[in-house]
């Protein structure tokens, strides 16, 4: 039903519904205004929407929202450093001897 309205229609409908609820609450709080609408408003057997609001006999939709807090854990670990001694003798150009400090013959 609401999808047939445009954005302006939804706004107008929302304002009208809030105005109706506000009017009902005002009439429920003020007996003299209620008696202007109904002559028998003061009787105990009188039942209308205003008296239902006044006696809290209105059903309303309830929604339960669970408050869940997301669990955030931050783990910090030291970077893994692996050092391996590997002389780069095989990477030297042909005809070049390794330095004396790295040479296995020294």
Defining traits:
mainly alpha; rod-shaped
Oligomeric description of these chains: single chain
**Helicity level:** 25-40%
Q: Main sheet, how many strands, which sense, barrel? A: none
Q: Which structural class fits the helix and strand makeup?
A: mainly alpha
- Strand residue content: under 5%
- Total E-strand runs: 0
Q: Please, could you describe this protein's structure?
A:
It is a single chain. With 106 residues, the chain is mostly helical. The chain is 34% helix and 0% strand. It has helices at 7-29, 31-37, 49-54. Helix 1 packs across helix 2 (31-37).
In short:
This protein has 106 residues and is mostly helical.
What's the helix and strand layout?
Layout: H1 7-29, H2 31-37, H3 49-54
Helix pairs in contact: 1-2
């Amino acid at each position: 039903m609401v999808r047939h309205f445009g954005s302006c229609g939804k706004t107008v409908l929302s304002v009208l519904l809030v105005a109706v609820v506000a009017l009902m609450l005002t009439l429920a709080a003020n007996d003299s205004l209620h008696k202007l609408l109904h002559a028998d408003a003061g009787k105990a057997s009188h039942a209308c929407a205003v008296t239902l609001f006044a006696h809290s006999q209105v059903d309303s939709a309830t929604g339960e929202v669970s408050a869940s807090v997301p669990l955030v854990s931050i783990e910090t670990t030291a970077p893994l450093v692996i050092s391996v001694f590997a002389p780069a003798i095989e990477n030297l150009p042909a005809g070049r001897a390794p330095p004396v400090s790295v040479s296995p013959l020294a």
